[in-house]
Amino acid sequence: MSIIKLNQVSKFYYSKNNISSGFSKVSLDLDAGEFVVITGESGSGKSTLLNVISGLDSYEEGEMYINGEETSHYSYEDYEEYRRKYIGNIFQNFNLVNSYTVYQNIELVLLLNGYSKKEAKEKVLSVIKQVGLTRYTNTKASKLSGGQKQRVAIARALVKDTPIIVADEPTGNLDIKSAESIMKLLYEVSSDKLVVIVTHNYEQVEKYVTRKITMHDGKIIMDKKIKEKNDISISPAEYKNINFINKVLLGIRNAFNIKTKFLLLSIVYLVLTLFVFSSYSALQKIDYDNNLGGRHEFFLDSSQQRIIINKKDKSLITADDIDTLSKLSNVSHIVKDDIILDEHYNVYNDNQYFYGTLKSLSMIDHVTYGRLPINDHEVVISISKYDSFDEELLNQTFTYGDDYGNALSTVTLVGINIDNDSLYSQIYLSEYLMNKAVMNSISRYGTMTLDLNGNSYNSQNDTRLYYQILPSKNVSPNQALVPENMEYVCYNYNCINNYGRVNYKTVYFNSYIDFRIADIYNEKNYASKTGMDAKTYSYNSSAIFINDEDYNSLFSNGVYQSSVYIKDVKLLDSTVKDLESLNYNVYPMKNMLTQTNALINSVMRILRTILFVAAVIVLFFISYFIIKIILKSRNSYFGTIRTLGASKGIARDLLNIELFVDINFIYIVFITLIILVRNNIIKFEYIKDMTTYFNLGDYILLYIMLVIMSLLIALRYARGLFKNTIMNAYREEV
Q1: C-alpha angle 232-235-238 in degrees, rounded to nearest 5
Q2: Which of 290, 304, 535, 557 could disulfide-pair with 509, CB 3.0 to 4.6 Å?
Q3: Rounded to whole angstroms, how far apart are CA atoms 263 and 420?
Q4: Could you give the CA distance from residue 733 to residue 91 in angstroms, rounded to a whole number?
Q5: What are phi and psi of 485, to 5 degrees?
Q6: Which pLDDT score is estimated for 597?
Q7: CA–CA separation, 189 vs 546, rounded Å?
Q8: Rounded to whole angstroms, how far apart are CA atoms 291 and 595?
Q9: Of 662, 64, 562, the residue nearest 316 (C-alpha)
Q10: How far apart are CA 577 and CA 583, in angstroms?
Q11: Environment class of residue 256 by beta-carbon count within 10 Å: exposed (0-12), middle (13-18) or buried (19+)?
Q12: What is the rounded CA–CA span in Å between residue 50 and residue 47?
C-alpha cells in the first residue's frame, strides 16, 4: 500500500472574482524508500503539488490518501497531526529563525514535539555533526552562508525523524559543490524514508533519483521509474505536545531575541501603560477634588484632613500616646482636646465682633498686623482676606465667650493675621484660655446634676432651675458663689452655708464635687465677688461659681477623644490602618461628610467612566494596528513552527506568552519609574502628582487591565494569522 496516494486531485486559488489552477486532475502513488524528483518549468504546479502532499496546503477536488486513509474531510487539526507524524520540510528559502542559533533552530523541532531540553541536547548535537556544522553550533542563522543554512534546514528535517521528507528547490541558491553534498545527504536518508524533491535542475540530482515526475501546466506529463526503490515499511513518528516550561522559555526567548521588534513593542506598551495610568489617575483626581467639599450636621471643623480617634477600651489618651501619634509619617498635628473644634466662640467689644473656631497659639508663628501674644490673656485673630478690620482694634480689651452666651474671660487683641485660604475667622489662644474653653465645652456634653437641700436638679431635663458652673479665682476651694435668684430653693430663702453636690457624667467618666455656699452675688456686686468684667453679668447671671481647682476636678478628668490632622488626604487609608493598629477607634471626617452635589457628582462620574472606557477601547485598536505592523515580521516564524509540528494552539500560546512577557517587562519598568519619581530620584512632577491618587489596589487593577489588553491584542492578531492554511498565512498579509 502506498504511503501517499492522489486520485484526480486538483488545487485552485481564489482571488476576488478570479479562479486560477495550481494543478489539475493529478493521480499519483508514492511509496517508502523512493527518492522522487518532480521537475518542470516555473508555474507548472510542482511546488503547489509538493505543498499539498506535505499538508501545508489544502486541495479542492479529488482525494488524497495517507496510508490508505482519505483526507478530504481533514480539518486544520488533522493536517497538523499529519505534518507532525509524517512530514519533514526543507524549503528553498530555508525558513530558518534567523535570530536563533544553529543549535536553537534544530532544538526547536524537538521542543515543539514534546522533548525536554535535556533530552533534545544529544540528538541536536548528533545531527549537527551529521550535516557538518559542529563549528557553527552557536552561530546565529543570519550569519550563515546559503549552503550552511540549507544544511541546518536538512538537519532540522532529519532530527524530526519523520517517514517523509519533502524539499522544494533545496539546491536553488547553492553552488555546485554545496548542491552535490546536499543531494548526497538526502539520498543517504532516503534508504528508509520517502524523499520528494522539487527542482528545475534535474542534472544535479539525476544519479540519485529512483523516480522522475515531470509536470506541465498543472498536469503530470511524465512519471518515469529510474531505478528500483528500497522495499521497506515505515510508521509515523511518535510525538508529544510541548511542555509548559518549554513554552514559557520559548516565549521569553522570542520576546527579547529581535532587538528592533522588542524596542518597538516596548515603546507601544509603555505609551499604552502611561496613557491608561494617567487617564485612570485623572479620574481618581477628579473624584478626590469633588469630594473635598461636604458638610456634617454636628462637626463644625469638617476638614478632610481630620481624623477623630478614641481608644477602643475607652481609656485615657496620655502624653505618651500623643507622642507616638505625632511620629506617624502622615500626621501633621494633633488637637488633644478636640471638643472645642466643633463649637464657635466669640471675641467682641463695642467696636468689633469676631466669630470663629479656636486654635492653639502653637499653631501660628506670624501675624500680618501687630504681634504674637506674650501672656495668657492676649489673643490673635485670623480673618479672611475678604473681611474688613481697623488696626486701631489692636490692644483693645474684648470679652471672650462661647456661642451660648457664656462669657469666659476678658482678653486683649494684640495681633491680626490675614489667611488667604480661609473663609472663616480663627481665634488663637493661650493654653490657659484654651483649657477654659475645653472645660466649658465639656460641661455641656455630659449630664450634670445639682443636689441641694434634698432636691436634685438635672441639667438636661429639669426646667425648675437653669444654671451653669463657671470657675472663679475669687472663690475658695469646696465653696460656691451662687446668684441671688437661687434663694428660693434654699432654706428660709437663705443660701449661705447651705451644702450641695454637683455630679457630672459622660460616656467616659463620672465626677462630683461637694461645696458649701459661701456667698451670694447680684448685678451690683458681680464684678467684685466673681472677679469677672461687669459687662459679662448679663451672660452669667445664673452661673454657680466654684474654685478653679474644683472646676478642673469636675470637668478635667483627662483626654478621651482627640483629633489627628494628616498631611495628605490621599494617604488617608494607610494612616487609618496605622491608627487602628495602635488600638484606636478611627473616624475619618472625609467618610462622614454629606456631599451637597452627590447626585450630580455620581452622574458625572458615570459619564467620565464611559469616556475613559471609550478612550481605552480606541487606544486598544490603535495599539493593535501598530503591533500588527510590528509583528508582521513574525508571520514567517509562526508559519515555520507550524511546519515543524506546532499546532495553531501551540503557536497561539507562544504568541500570547511572548506579548505577556513584553507587557510584564514594561510594567516592571513602569513601576521602577514610579518608585524613582516618588523618591525624587527622577524629577517628574506630573507623574509624581498622579501617583498620589493611586493605591496598591489601583496598581493591581492597572496591571490586570494591561494584561487583558495584551492578551486581546495577541488573540486578535492570532485569529488573522492562523485562520487559513500555512501557505495562505505565508502568502497573505494579516
Answers
A1: 145
A2: 557
A3: 51
A4: 20
A5: -75, 0
A6: 63
A7: 117
A8: 7
A9: 562
A10: 10
A11: middle
A12: 5
The DSSP secondary-structure symbol of 368 reads: S
Query: What does each C-alpha distance from 592 to 75, 291, 294, 355, 586 come to in angstroms?
Result: 64, 11, 9, 25, 12
The beta strand positions in 149-250, using DSSP E, are: 164-168, 194-198, 211-216, 219-225
Give the pLDDT confidence score for residue 464 in this predicted structure: 47
Average pLDDT in the 355-379 region? 89
- The DSSP secondary-structure symbol of 566 reads E
Amino acid code (one letter) for 267: I
Asked whether the beta carbons of 582 and 324 are under 8 A apart, the reply is yes
For 474-597, where are the alpha helices, taking DSSP H only?
526-530, 537-540, 548-555, 572-581
- 642 residue type, one letter: R
Question: In the chain, what percentage of residues exceed pLDDT 70?
Answer: 94
Q: What is the DSSP string of 443-458?
A: TTSSEEEEEETTEEEE
Dihedral sign for Cα atoms in the order 358, 363, 366, 370: positive
Give the mean pLDDT of the chain. 86
The CA distance from 389 to 382, in Å, is 11
Q: How many CB atoms lie within 10 A of CB 538?
A: 11
State the Cα–Cα distance between residues 435 and 369, nearest whole angstrom.
Answer: 26
Range 121-144 burial, b when 16+ CB lie within 10 A, else e: eebbeebbebbebeebeeebbeeb
Q: Exposed e or buried b for every residue in 696-708, given b needs 16+ CB within 10 A?
A: eeebeebbebbee
| Residue closest to 259 by CA, chosen among 95, 431, 70, 99 | 99
The model carries a pTM of 0.62
The residue whose grid cell reads 522559555 is 249
Among 28-42, 405-419, 448-462, 507-521, the least confident range: 448-462
CB atoms within 10 A of CB 365: 7
Q: Are 107 and 141 in contact (CB under 8 A)?
A: no
User: pLDDT class for 422, splitting at 50, 70, 90?
Assistant: low
Coil, helix or strand for 718?
helix
Is the separation of the CB atoms in 548 and 302 below 8 Å? no
In eight-state DSSP terms, residue 101 is B
> What's the grid cell of residue 606?
458615570
CA 53 – CA 49 distance, rounded (Å): 6
d(CA 367, CA 349): 21
Q: Is the pLDDT of residue 734 over 50?
A: no
In whole angstroms, give the CA distance from residue 288 to residue 296: 18
| Number of Cβ within a 10 Å radius of residue 424 | 15
What cell was used for 519? 456667698
3-state secondary structure of 11: strand
674 vs 487, higher pLDDT: 674
The neighbouring-strand residues paired with 410 are: 399
Q: Where are the alpha helices (DSSP H) in 379-506?
A: 431-442
Ranges of beta strands (E only) in 420-558 are 425-429, 447-452, 455-458, 468-471, 479-483, 499-505, 510-521, 543-546
Burial class of 388 by CB neighbour count within 10 A (0 to 12, 13 to 18, 19+) = exposed
Task: Return phi, psi of residue 542, to 5°.
Answer: -115, 15
703 close to 293: Cβ distance less than 8 angstroms:
no
Strands 425-429 and 543-546, by their bridges, are: unpaired
Q: Which residues of 266-384 form beta strands (DSSP E)? A: 306-311, 331-335, 345-348, 353-360, 369-370, 378-384
Which cell numbers hold the place of 362? 502653637
pLDDT digits (tens, 9 = 90+) for 581-594: 999 999 998 877 76
- Distance, in Å, from the CA atom of 219 to the CA atom of 401, rounded to the nearest integer, reads 113
